[in-house]
Specification:
The complex is a heterodimer of chains A (118) and B (112). Chain A is 0% helix and 51% strand. With 118 residues, chain A is an all-beta fold. Chain A is globular, with a radius of gyration of 13 Å. In chain B, the strands form 2 sheets. In chain B, strands 2, 4, 5, 6, 9, 10 and 11 form a 7-stranded mixed beta sheet that branches. Chain B has a 4-stranded antiparallel beta sheet with strand order 1-3-8-7, with no helix packed on it. Classes of the chains: A mainly beta (118), B mainly beta (112).
Amino acid sequence: EVQLVESGGGLVQPGRSLKLSCAASGFTFSNYYMAWVRQAPKKGLEWVATISTSGSRTYYPDSVKGRFTISRDNAKSSLYLQMNSLKSEDTATYYCARHHPGPEVDYWGQGVMVTVSS
Amino acid sequence: DVVMTQTPVSLSLAIGQPASISCKSSQSLLGTSGKTFLNWILQRPGQSPKRLIYQVSKLYSEVPDRFSGSGSETEFTLKISRVEAEDLGVYYCWQGTHFPHTFGAGTKLELK
């Protein structure tokens, strides 16, 4: 069974950093592109980042480019999101997601909440 | 960025009634591969999103066949032939053809 379990969320002050983790199981992690998608409270969904199987290619929207970094450790079947210079508008539930068969997402994690507030 | 416009914003239907949700994109979603990466997902209350349909009309294996997807280029439709109680929630279309990937604002399906 495919499982994606996020961790690392919490309350953080504006301008500070936070690193999210996603532990994957039930599939060969290194074979799949992975992504982070977020959802602000009572709002819609926003794609945040995608990473290739080896980690050599990454993609971001302008809203987080230069502040967020997606990475992975295939040996640990883990996905990460390093978030720097956090802003109040980054407050959201962050979902780990698996891309398959192409850019589609076939599995989503349960989400982890990040609150950026002083 | 590609703008995804969903209508209606909400639907209130009785069990057994059909449902139809429209999704329009500001650019063609036909990719250079010849595939159209238009997806539909459902987010039930208090849950994470769940997959429904990919590449316009392909149902994931666990999705009931009362769901169907259609469309091309910039106009797409999700249909439910007969709504059931488990179908309530917010439906989102989203595109994976262009970066950044973008989502519609969602259509909330409520039961009457």
